[in-house]
Amino acid sequence: MKYSEIAKVFQDIADLLELKGENPFKIRAYQKVVRSIEHLPVEVEQLVAEDRLKGIPGVGEAITKKITELITTGKLEFYEKLKAEFPAGISTLLDLPGIGPKTAMLLATELDIKSIDELETAIVGGKVVSLPRMGDKTVDNILRQIQALRRKKRSQRIPISEALPVVDDIIARLSPLPGLRHLTPAGSLRRFRETVGDIDLMGTTDKATEAIHAFTNLPRVKEVLASGTTKASVVVSGGFQVDLRIVEHDSFGSTLQYFTGSKQHNINLRERAHRQGLKLSEYGITNLATGELEKFATEEAFYHRQGLEFIPPEIREGQQEVELAEKGILPKLVELSDIKGDLHVHTDWSDGRSSLEAMALAAKALGYQYLGIADHSGGRGIARGLDAERLRQQILEIKQLNQKIDGIHIFTGIEVDIRADGSLDIPDETLAELDIVTAAVHSSMNQSQEQMTRRVLGAIENPNVDMLAHPSCRLLPDREPVAVDMEAVFQAAAKTNTILEINAMPSRLDLKDIHTYRAREVGVKLVINTDAHSTEHLQFMRFGIGVARRGWCQSQDILNTRPLTEILAYLRH
Fold it and tell me: When comparing pLDDT for 101 and 317, which is higher?
């Protein structure tokens, strides 16, 4: 649980106690707790475990018990009982700046308002201004706060796992329009940043008005912010903004490059071009001596005109990409079509939803040559986690499937839990029977960096461990990485030939791009796995490819681009 979530609970308690007319000193005590805990640098779970809460200003024995109850149970009985004394939805109203406890109570009791949307409707309908102490100025201020809150929500960066399906859906619905071509995302989404701001789409057509009309009337559009002849901005379900820009066919390349960015990449290009007597813009390249504008229908032509090879969007971050493109020595980045298999998937033997056979057939349908089964071990507490006996039963079933299904090889394996003390929860003699052993941390994540690093390095150095899964243990957007010395992990993995995973599960993307870049530099063997828990999850491979490309990985840097014969030889070695 985040400190901000705990702070909200105690702020709500203070507000509700004020409505009850409680002792002001008691109310201020809760308000002091809010100020004290909002920005603490240590995980709250760690403070609870180490009994250090009482060291926080304003946190005495009673508050310590309440915070501990929140952390251990996920709720606070005192808070739930207090809320039950008031109309439903009052806590939501209290979240809105400008609405104090008394105003919230008035809105809830007189108009039965339970949400921000209901409040906005009541304001527009003239119901709020008629209430006592609610003049035009007060109501206008509340409406502005509602609009500001919505803008703030829209400005928050969106995980790429949420943004990409929206783009896919929009492109699928608009692509059949007659004459619409080159419809593609730009901005940070095209560069495959793990979070994006507003979503930018671009395309070309001779019927721009029709394309804009179709875009603004898509089913997922909830609000049209602006609509012109060549550009429109909408808010879609989920609350984020999508912009569509229709550009000229012959300048599509330069415009797409301009709006893809990054800002620093474009600055570097412009400075270099200026030294050549050229000016770059979204419209093309202008010769400063003659004033002549040259347009470009493709990005490739735009870059070539500057004496550069094409620079893939994922590495346009203002690092060394322009210098290398000038020399013609950019790496050929890994592509989805390079992938020959997935070495970390789950089945219904543990917490997966699909059978062994279903997973194998789905992988075969993708053209894969192999599939690595890595169901959870039992120590993590996962339902149906495998102990040594059930693991041996699964090994037999996999051997039978390998006889039954042609065209794909299934590797036996396990995702074995690295316990808090660094030991593995499957005996070494059992692990030795498997094709691939994947180790991972799933518990006691608040250990110090020294403890966590020692724990992970112990697994890496175990001769039976082939691969380390999701090394930083983060979960997007809420769970921060564990405190582990990643450089020490990279050095140990390179020394022991242990494979590090780029986990393509959209909620993980772990290793992240900068860690991928460094691990590749050190010479670590990398693999892109989906951590799939169903056949549908196998499609997540493209997210891992995006991370690998941002880490400047080529196909030779990624183990599962190799054919089955090489994988078998590698594992035997």
Answer: 317
Quote the pLDDT of residue 229: 92
Query: With contact defined as beta carbons under 8 Å apart, do 215 and 234 qualify?
Result: yes
Beta bridge partners of 285: 280, 294
Mean pLDDT of the chain: 90
Question: In this structure, what CATH number is given to the domain that contains residue 359?
Answer: 3.20.20.140
Instruction: State which residues form the domain around 198.
Output: 158-247
Among all chains, which residue has been given the structure tokens 């498997």?
Answer: 434
Does one domain contain both 408 and 504?
Answer: yes
**CA 513/CA 539 separation, integer angstroms:** 20
Task: Name which of 67, 58, 79 is nearest 15 in CA terms.
Answer: 79
- Pairing mode of beta strands 199-204, 241-247: parallel
User: Rounded to whole angstroms, what are the CA distances from 248 to 84, 215, 260?
Assistant: 60, 18, 17
> What amino acid occupies position 459?
A
Q: Clarify whether residues 319 and 407 are in a common domain.
A: no
Which is nearest to 513 in space by CA: 477, 563, 541, 549? 549
Same domain, 201 and 268: no
Number of domains in the chain: 4
Query: In this predicted model, what pLDDT tens digit does every residue of 529-554 receive, in sequence order?
Result: 999 999 999 999 999 999 999 999 99
- Give yes or no: residues 394 and 502 share one domain: yes
In sign, the C-alpha dihedral spanning 481, 484, 485, 488 is negative
Give me the helix-helix angle, 77-84 and 3-20, nearest 10°: 40
What is the model's pTM?
0.74
- For residue 381, pLDDT over 70 is answered with no
At 533 the three-state DSSP class reads coil
Indicate whether 390 and 510 sit together in one domain. yes
Burial class for 448, CB neighbours closer than 10 Å (0-12, 13-18, 19+): exposed
Give the pLDDT confidence score for residue 3 in this predicted structure. 67
Parallel/antiparallel/unpaired status of strands 293-294 and 284-287: antiparallel
End-to-end Cα spacing for the chain: 44
Q: CA angle, corner 388, sides to 383 and 394, nearest 5?
A: 75
Among 153, 182, 201, give the residue marking a domain's end: 153
Give dist(CA 522, CA 488) in Å, integer. 11
Residues 501 and 454 in one domain: yes
3-class secondary structure, 409: strand
